[in-house]
Amino acid sequence: MEHVLTAEFFQGNRERLRQLFTGTAPIVITAHAQLQQSADEAYPFRQDSSFYYLTGVTDPGVVLVMDKTKEYLIVPPREVVIEQFDGVIDPVQLARVSGIQTVVTQKEGWRMLSTRLKKSAHVATLGAAPRYIEYLGMYTNPARADLIAQMKEINPKLELLDLRTHLSRMRMVKQPAEIEVIKRAIEVTCSTIKTITRPSKLVKYANEYEIEAELTYGFRRQGAPHAFHPIVSSGKNTCTMHYLKAESPLKSGELLLLDVGAEYEFYASDIARTMSLGGNPTRRQKQVYDAVLDVQEYAFTLLKPGVVLQEYEQQIENYMGEKLRELGLIKTITSDAVRQYFPHRTSHFLGLDTHDAGDYEHPIEPGVIITVEPGIYIPEEGIGIRIEDDVLITVDGIENLSAGLPRAL
């Protein structure tokens, strides 16, 4: 498979970072660390997205150093047994992928870096997230915090300059190569959903996990993994936004909600469709579906360069309130009332991460790619409906990149 993202792409990203940063302090950024899943088995490795954006390197533990015009990668040592089981980190491959010609061992690299840090008042890096993010209920990768601690040990007086805002702004506006790989991820996703949801095929599935398996097969046979754990929900499960179990039987007359996305060269797609199992939706299902579709169409009309997503979300909330009142679900349009049935944002940035880096208070520009995914969830009626498309902001509006996938109930 020929790669769209070449060493020139990653070199360009590093140069843009240098221009944005403007400082003279060394820039030091780490890859993610490998994490234990159980006993001696690690979780499948996923690279830190910003590190990948700057290097194209997919191995754990590597450190990038950019010091004025000089740049190099520091490669961690591996035990012989790990190399035997998992393979070696090839310096020649790292240089070819990243365009960084100097690839050094951990001992040599940290000797070079230590000499520089001892003479520096500042170092630029990516700030570490808290060890535990309470509202997400998860622990974070320790690599950034460990890197900062190691640099502080070398020079306790070092002041950190956080590059997260720089990288967020850079990643928010997609370059032509990024748009191309996201379009490829969308093509894989749409073609797979089309195959699975053909009426003649859909009736053959008896359980949610059968559809999940078909999704995996459809993606992988086209060379693409999942960008995130697929959501395959039916019946009352459609009211759980991130339902991941996929273990319930499918029943005619209920709704099926798919929220899935393939990944291509590390870039994500994210598409949702809701359909009637059996092909004969009830009057109430049609009412709710039409309301969600109407909200999505309204959202499309609002999007253009200069829009601030925070303000756009408020407009969508008000419009959704009107729809919920028409459906008899609320009497008064307030934020609390609307969020009872529409608890998530309409849009998020899309790119290396499914919920990608971006500034919701900064006006969007041509090249930004976001999702548009209104939904209505009524647990007391067992109806959950979400429609999601991926759109590119253009000079005069939007291009719906997933428009080729039908939205009919």
Would you write up a description of this structure?
The protein has 409 residues and is α+β, with helices and mostly antiparallel strands. The chain has 2 domains: 164 residues, 3-Layer(aba) Sandwich (Creatine Amidinohydrolase, Chain A, domain 1), CATH 3.40.350.10; 228 residues, Creatine Amidinohydrolase. It is 38% helix and 18% strand. It is built from 13 helices and 20 strands. It has a 4-stranded mixed beta sheet. Strands 11-12-15 form a 3-stranded antiparallel beta sheet, with helices on one face. α11 runs antiparallel to α12. The longest helix has 21 residues. The two termini are 36 Å apart. The model has no long low-confidence stretch (mean pLDDT 96).
Kindly list the characteristics that best describe this protein:
alpha+beta; Creatine Amidinohydrolase; three-stranded antiparallel beta sheet; Creatine Amidinohydrolase, Chain A, domain 1; 409 residues; four-stranded mixed beta sheet
Largest sheet descriptor: 4 strands, mixed
Strand content: 15-25%
End-to-end separation in angstroms reads 36 Å
Number of domains: 2
CATH fold label of the largest domain: Creatine Amidinohydrolase
For the residues shown, what is the average pLDDT? 96
- Per DSSP E runs of 2 or more residues, the count of β-strands stands at 20
Judged by helices, strands and strand pairing, the structural class is: alpha+beta
Number of helices: 13
- The CATH architecture category of the largest domain equals Alpha-Beta Complex
Q: Give the CATH class of the largest domain.
A: Alpha Beta
CATH superfamily of the largest domain: Creatinase/methionine aminopeptidase superfamily
Strand order of the largest sheet: 1-4-5-6
Radius of gyration: 23 Å
